[in-house]
Amino acid sequence: MSSSLCLQYWHSVHAIVKHVRHTAVPMLLQRNRKADHRFSPAASLNISATMIKRFWHVILFIAICGSLAGQGDIDPQDRIFWRNEKSIGPALNADGWSIIYRDLRQFKPNQRWFIEGSVEGFKHPKEIKLSNYYFQSPGSFVFGKLNTTWTLGAGAGYQLEIFEKHDLGGVSVSWFGGGGATLLFAKPIYYKIIVLLGNDYYTIEEQKFDLTIHQPLDIMSKASFFKGFDEIKLYPGLYARTGFNFEYSRNDRITHTVEVGASLHAFAKTIPIMASDDNKQFFPSIFVGYRIGMILDPVSQRGLFDLLRKQSAE
After folding, report:
1. What's the pTM value of the predicted model, to 2 decimals?
2. Which fold has domain 84-313?
3. pLDDT, tens digit, for every residue of 38-63?
4. 209 within 8 A of 222, measured Cβ to Cβ
């Protein structure tokens, strides 16, 4: 039932109830004026039956139109039921950051397998940024840090949709799990060290950190990020990742997803991030991230720019 039909029905009910009210009131006044004549039981019964009948009409009207107003937005889009997906997004980890690309292929109505690639960075819990307040310098440094680390990973996994999204503005919930191989790059950090030449003279030298001789006031800032690239060391390892994602896009072709979960990276050797004895070989972490992607229709393959062009035209 459309809103216009509901409105017409309401006007008709209102007119009938108004007619019954104008008919019943004069009859009741006439009864008061003629105290010696009793009001007709048949007329009273007829009025009561009419009002009860109209009352149920009003209830029926509210039930029908109210149910229409209470429904969620109907999805007018042509839905893709066999949903392959490509997505990418950043995440904040408890011990760093990550950017993950994922390619999902559906093989059952609510199940997909995927391959993924990732770039991730790790931090040590003792990393604290400092600046030298004796020497005005725009840069900062982490005292005691030996290497900047990041990883390149590739793996595969499985995703299971637990709750499906039916209406516009709904949310689908999925569980995922996967893992693969990863390779960690450890690039040495060089510092701009203040070297005193005399009472009023000093020079700046770029040196690696040495806990036995360097103090916080000896460091002006970090050297260029590209310094030390020829000294990178590689550490192979494995990773595993699991969690839940919540897809909430209002467009059936584009995905917007919030993802939460936990991960574990394990390497063959301890990673020398800081000049301390508590460097780690295993990196457990929790993460939260955001992903954006597109749904690929196996029947009609289109690129992201084609999809955005179509949406703009509409």
Report:
1. 0.68
2. Porin (2.40.160)
3. 434 444 444 445 555 554 554 454 44
4. no
